[in-house]
Design goal:
- The chain has two domains: 36 residues; 241 residues, SGNH hydrolase (Rossmann fold), CATH 3.40.50.
- Helices cover 42% and strands 13% of the residues.
- The protein has ten helices and seven strands.
- Strands 3-2-4-1-5-6-7 form a seven-stranded mixed beta sheet, sandwiched between helices.
- A hairpin with a 5-residue loop joins β2 and β3.
- α3 crosses α10.
- The N and C termini lie far apart (55 Å).
């Protein structure tokens, strides 16, 4: 009887070991499938994220699609990514339609990531030209900028790898909004992380470029431009980084970046994003 009892125990242990091994193997398979999927990035903010760079200034190579970089377009169709990423043709969410979208930093960012690690990338444009921070107030409603962006992020499925944020020009024209920009941005990041179920979701924001001269911007004025830049330069929350657009070339309106500027900015954004991921933000 004693030997039978020992045998039963050994058999039970063998079953437990086999089940554990099977679970571990299945976990590895699932992890491998997750890792094999594309890195998903949301492109949010206002016009300099949608892009106003000239398509004509792209090189032939930049006009050639990389099959490993895909886009979930504003028409909710999947395709290989080419500028303009934020094309409003067939727009499903009118609230975020940007008919002037052209070349922005998103595709340069994705190409830079590909050069770094070779993985597949999926871009989800959510930006809207002229949008203020107030218009990005978190909401579950799909007819809001935040709600539409969140719905699109959920529609693609999978884990969102990070968010790129470029916004502030509109608030720079409203001194009353500048004082709340930093706290509003932090609240926006916190809500994205809550809704996407990732408290260490990497976010890279862009600090505004140099201000337009009054002679060029008239009749518009931007009295709070330096205040917004200062807010963006404050120590960021955990797993948030900032890259500056100061000194980058601008178009004749001195408000929007050129294609060359976005080429440089996209690389900077990729370096910052990889830096956050290297610190365990993912």
């Amino acid at each position: 009887m004693r030997y039978r009892s020992i045998g039963r125990r050994l058999g039970l242990l063998a079953c437990v070991a086999a089940a554990t091994a099977m679970t571990t193997a299945m976990t590895r398979v699932v992890d491998a499938k997750v890792q094999a999927g594309p890195e998903i990035y949301l492109l949010a903010g206002q016009s300099n994220m949608s892009g106003r760079g000239l398509l004509a200034d792209l090189t032939p190579e930049e006009r050639t699609a990389d099959p490993a970089i895909r886009l979930y377009g504003n028409d909710e169709q999947w395709r290989v990514a080419l500028d303009p990423l934020d094309d409003a043709t067939g727009q499903v969410d009118p609230v975020s339609a940007d008919p002037k979208a052209a070349v922005g930093p998103g595709l340069f960012f994705a190409r830079a990531l590909r050069r770094m690690h070779g993985g597949a990338v999926l871009l989800v444009p959510c930006a809207k030209g002229g949008s203020s921070m107030e218009e990005w107030t978190p909401s579950d409603r799909r007819d809001t900028l935040y709600g539409a962006c969140l719905a699109r992020a959920r529609a693609v499925g999978g884990h969102v790898a990070g968010i790129l944020w470029y916004q502030g020009e509109t608030d720079a024209g409203r001194p009353e909004a500048a004082g709340a920009w930093q706290s509003d941005f932090e609240a926006l990041v916190a809500r994205f992380r809550l809704d996407l179920d990732d408290d260490r979701l990497p976010v890279v924001m862009v600090q505004l470029a140099d201000p337009p001269s009054p002679e060029v911007s008239a009749p518009k004025t931007y009295p709070a431009w330096s205040a917004i830049q200062a807010a963006q330069a404050e120590p960021p929350p955990s797993c948030v980084d900032m890259v500056s657009a100061k000194g980058l070339p601008r178009k004749e309106d001195e408000l929007h970046l050129t294609t060359e500027a976005h080429r440089q900015l996209g690389g900077r954004l990729a370096v910052a994003m990889e830096g956050l991921r290297g610190r365990g933000c993912r």
